[in-house]
């Protein structure tokens, strides 16, 4: 009959130690880890040491994990959690519309820095211009090839409310004309 092991040799420090100095590990043949507890602790500390030496930032500042720049918390999306607003916008452009920030800037420059419909130079809400794309090509997320241009929030919302229908927009245009009587459903004369 075999006697149960009471000691084990550590692979790292090569010293013989009691089994209680080794963490349990069910997949090992003897049920214990190869390294003793103190060697495992030293290895963990050595591995995480570079991360521990990061400078502590003053209150109100945070480092963005995307662009690695230090910015005030006000420049971060979600109250300081996640990436900075610039990185969040870049991720959103790529995910929703299939375009990069450079492509967005090129579209904006091609439109003279203004809304493609009303010509306003800056959104009244202070937000970026919306990316307009053909919903018949891509109903939810754009493939990037069906992007039509950039619109202010009001024009983008108006197109959405008219369901991107040229017929509905033409009817609305005739409705707004002075002295123009629109013929339509229930108005047949």
From TrEMBL:
**What start-end ranges are recorded for coiled-coil regions in this protein?**
none
Q: Keywords on this record?
A: Endonuclease, Hydrolase, Nuclease
Q: Which GO terms describe its molecular function?
A: endonuclease activity
InterPro entries to which the protein is assigned, alphabetical: Endonuclease_7 (IPR004211), Endonuclease_7_sf (IPR038563), His-Me_finger_sf (IPR044925)
Which Pfam families does its entry note? Endonuclease_7
Name of the featured protein: Endonuclease VII domain-containing protein
Taxonomic source organism: Actinomadura alba
């Amino acid at each position: 009959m075999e006697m149960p092991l009471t000691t084990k040799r550590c692979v790292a420090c090569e010293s013989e130690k009691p089994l209680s100095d080794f963490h349990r590990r069910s997949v090992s043949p003897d049920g214990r880890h190869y390294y003793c507890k103190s060697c495992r602790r030293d290895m963990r500390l050595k591995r995480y040491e570079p991360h521990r030496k990061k400078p502590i930032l003053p209150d109100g500042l945070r480092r963005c994990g995307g662009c690695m720049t230090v910015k005030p918390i006000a420049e971060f999306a979600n109250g300081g959690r996640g990436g900075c607003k610039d990185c969040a916008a870049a991720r959103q452009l790529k995910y929703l519309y299939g375009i990069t920030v450079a492509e967005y800037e090129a579209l904006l420059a091609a439109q003279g820095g203004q809304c493609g419909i009303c010509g306003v130079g800056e959104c009244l809400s202070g937000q970026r211009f919306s990316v307009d794309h053909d919903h018949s090509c891509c109903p939810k997320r754009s493939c990037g090839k069906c992007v039509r241009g950039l619109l202010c929030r009001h024009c983008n919302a108006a197109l959405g409310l008219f369901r991107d229908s040229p017929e509905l927009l033409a009817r609305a245009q005739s409705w707004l004309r002075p002295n123009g009587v629109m013929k339509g459903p229930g108005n047949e004369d």
